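The data layer described in this paper is built around a simple, fixed record for each protein. We quote a single record here, exactly as it is kept in our systems:
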Amino acid sequence: MTDRRVIRTNEALRAAFRKLAQQYRFHEITVQQLTDEANINRKTFYLHFDSIDDLADSFTAEIADQLLSLLLREPANHDPLNHSGVWFDRLTAFFEQAPKFYTFVLTSDDYSFLSRRVKKRVVAGLAANFQTDYRLSEIDAQLGVNFLISSTLTLFRLYITGELAMSKADFRQRIMALNLNGLQGFLETVR
């Protein structure tokens, strides 16, 4: 069981990071700013985290774990070929229900390095399933999952930030066509 003081301190530091990240670029945030915002001393910060990057990475792990639990959840498990709309629907629900900070991390240009870490963790979590389910080599599973996750999350980023002006239904249809059939299938769908 974790000490309540440890939990409160972690929560205070994470809240401070969430607030400061939306005001400053990552490299502009200092440990002093974090500790002032969290109302703790610097020594305490280093008892909990090795660096600001370590603190930021705690969010990438949390976001990736939530995405993986959604994508691997039954029914329709992780099979984007037989249940193409399920991933879209679950990702849409994630972005609609997730804390605003998660969406910020996944859509912010200044924090795109955290988004890449999230994608990397999600790919690692899905690749073994693809390798087994589709009888792929390790490299082909990595390639397939990277394509699906990177392209899908990038397109969601563009949609959420308003760079793709279309209805949710149109967005869903197009992203499913791209993920299922690649560019050729997509062009056939939109023509």
Remarks:
- The longest helix spans residues 138-160.
- The chain has a mean pLDDT of 89.
- The radius of gyration is 19 Å.
- Residues 88 and 172 are 7 Å apart (CA to CA).
